[in-house]
Amino acid sequence: MKATIHDRVPGARLRDMVPPAYRDAVVKDTRPDGEYSLLLFDHAERDVVPSPPVRKALRRLENPAQDGILAVGTVFTQEALALLDEAGARPVAFRTALWTDESARARQL
């Protein structure tokens, strides 16, 4: 699982940069004149975003945009959410089920 990183996205373009299911949620609490970093993770219906790709994406994002980081994915594990919180990033998820890295790994086996 790999993230697509957009270092600087104008707030007015955020809606156009994400899949349709996330458009309303991604513009909530953002300003059209702001500038944001956008992390796009897997977003198919059954995808669960664990902590390793989140950690890697945050490490690759050297200089976050001044107005914050938005992380978009189907659902994030608790460990991934903790990393996003630590980085001050706002997760935008399609679902809110409770997953851990371990339970997501077990599901894939």
Strand content: 15-25%
Question: What's the helical proportion of residues?
Answer: 25-40%
| Shape estimate | globular
Spans of at least 5 consecutive residues whose pLDDT stays below 50 are none
Number of helices: 5
Major sheet characteristics: 4 strands, mixed
Provide a quick synopsis of the model:
The chain is α/β, with parallel strands linked by helices.
Your description of this structure?
With 109 residues, this protein is α/β, with parallel strands linked by helices. The protein has helices at 14-17, 23-27, 51-60, 78-86, 101-108; strands at 4-10, 35-40, 69-73, 89-93. The chain has a four-stranded mixed β-sheet with strand order 1-2-3-4, covered by helices on one side. The two termini are 15 Å apart. 30% of the residues are buried.
Give the key terms.
21% strand, globular, 109 residues, alpha/beta, 4 strands, four-stranded mixed β-sheet, 5 helices
Task: Please give the structural blueprint.
Elements: E1 4-10, H1 14-17, H2 23-27, E2 35-40, H3 51-60, E3 69-73, H4 78-86, E4 89-93, H5 101-108
Helix pairs in contact: 3-4
